[in-house]
From TrEMBL:
PROSITE patterns xrefs: VOC
Gene: mce
Enzyme class: isomerase
InterPro entries: Glyas_Bleomycin-R_OHBP_Dase, MeMalonyl-CoA_epimerase, MMCE/EMCE_epimerase, VOC_core
Annotated organism of origin: Pendulispora brunnea
PANTHER family, per the entry: METHYLMALONYL-COA EPIMERASE (PTHR43048), METHYLMALONYL-COA EPIMERASE, MITOCHONDRIAL (PTHR43048:SF3)
Protein name per the record: Methylmalonyl-CoA epimerase
């Protein structure tokens, strides 16, 4: 591959009540909230959690729909749970172009701005064995 994967950036967990879910992760696992924001363009409320000692660069992203139909459907159909795995890439435009050239089904053919102001794009779950994969460029 011409594009470079850097690391697992985060795992996204879809929840109905972000405050309760964050409290569960904080009290049960000792994670700390490092960032919370309303992502208006995605119609979501997100909260990123990490281990207090750093514990690596990856985080847990709690995502709660704030008018996002896709996430509402996810919660209705499956309930709260793992929503996606996000990989950080060096160049998201190059990654998307290469994936498209390979015939990989994409939800996003061009990146959009997501949480923390990062460029993001999603690979369709049918291309990844049923797993929604997000590409992230910081």
């Amino acid at each position: 591959m011409a594009f470079t994967f850097k690391k697992i950036d985060h795992v996204g967990v879809c929840v109905a009540d972000i405050d309760q879910a964050a409290e569960n992760y904080l009290s049960a696992l000792g994670l700390v909230a490092v960032d919370r924001e309303l992502v208006a363009s995605q119609k979501t409320d997100v909260c990123f959690l990490r281990f207090p000692d750093g514990g690596g660069d990856a985080s847990v992203e709690l995502i709660s729909p704030q008018g996002n139909d896709g996430l509402e459907k996810f919660l209705t159909k499956r309930g709260a749970g793992l929503h996606h795995v996000a990989f950080e890439v060096e160049d998201i435009v190059q990654a998307l172009a290469e994936l498209k050239e390979k015939g990989v089904a994409l939800i996003d053919e061009t990146p959009r701005i997501g949480a923390r102001g990062h460029k993001v794009a999603f690979i369709h779950p049918k291309a990844m064995g049923g797993v929604l994969v997000e590409l992230v460029q910081h």
